Amino acid sequence: MPLDILSTAIPFFFILAIVYGAIEVSGVFDNKRVGIIISVVIAFFTLTYEPLTLFINQMLPYAAIFFVIVFFLAFIFRPLKGEGGGKRDYTLIVVAGGLILLFLANYGYDALKELIPQFTNIDFLMAVGIVILIMVFYAAYKREKQGG
After folding, report:
1. Are residues 87 and 55 in the same domain?
2. Any idea what the Cα angle at residue 97 is, between residues 79 and 64, rounded to 5°?
3. Which among 33, 42, 52, 88 is least surrounded, fewest beta carbons within 10 Å?
4. Which structural domain, as residue segments, surrounds residue 97?
5. 132 or 46, higher pLDDT
């Protein structure tokens, strides 16, 4: 019984959030109540079409991973904007980029091996190391150029 409720509630709230977010970002309606009503109606329509709810339940883990990556990238690239006339902080970008490259060094080799069979593990780690060094030198250059 609780599993049945979750299998219908999760697609409902997922579609509700996506449609409401799209309406808010687009700014089509000035009244937020109209956006909420339209979002709820579309989410209920989603529940009536069972193949779509099954598809959403199957794809939701991948969507969750995608949203985590997008929010992580948005968090990382926010300091690059330099909002409010402040200095841009390249240190956070380099640290996050280094962590991503180290993650790829551990798990990305197998995927790359499928694409380029003659690519060896040593070549991949060497490429990752060179990219990390370039990022560190670039961040140091930018930091020195900003005066600190």
Report:
1. no
2. 85
3. 33
4. 82-148
5. 46
pLDDT in tens, 77-97: 666 665 555 566 666 667 777
Ramachandran class of 27: left when φ > 0, alpha when ψ lies in -120 to 50, beta otherwise: left
Structural domain count, the chain: 2
Q: 27-37: per-residue pLDDT in tens?
A: 888 888 888 99
CA 125 to chain centre: 25
What is the predicted pLDDT for the residue at 41? 92
Q: What's the confidence (pLDDT) of residue 46?
A: 85
End-to-end CA distance of the chain: 60
Residue 76 lies in a domain: no
Residue 45: both structure tokens together:
């329509």
Q: Are residues 93 and 136 in the same domain?
A: yes
Domain membership of residue 31 (yes or no) is yes
Q: Which SS3 state, helix, strand or coil, does residue 95 take? A: helix
CB atoms within 10 A of CB 60: 13
Rounded CA separation 82/62 (Å): 32
Evaluate whether 20 touches 39 at the Cβ level (below 8 Å): yes
